[in-house]
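Prompt: May I have another protein with tokenized structure?
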Amino acid sequence: MALWGVILSVRATELLCASIVLLKLRFRNPLVSGLILGSMSASPLLSLGVSTPITLVCVVVFVSAFGITAAGVTYDSTLQRRVPRSELSRVASIDDLLSFAPVPLSQVLIGPVSGYVGEHELFIVCPVAIIVLRFAPLLVRDV
């Protein structure tokens, strides 16, 4: 359990560092860049699934946290630029609802699914699903 605390501390440190770095970065196409960088969020699960040493897991978590932060920053800034100000609150509310509503359901289902599929296999399937879902919006021409 103490090792998980170390991993989360590494992640929190990089989230702060990434936020500072992202203040200076400008992406030509922020939404596409955010989707691509956000796919890095799959790498910590994958590293846990292949029984990577804890030091390497910390490195993977540190690097992936940049992608997670970049995805959030680029998405939020794109939302603010593209959605009319009069609609922004409504759109952001619906976005948050649809983003966070599945979390409790996934937490309820993860135990039974891991018992059925297997824990090791789940650490492989979930990262693949994350990558597919991160890249799916790139199939939309307007993105």
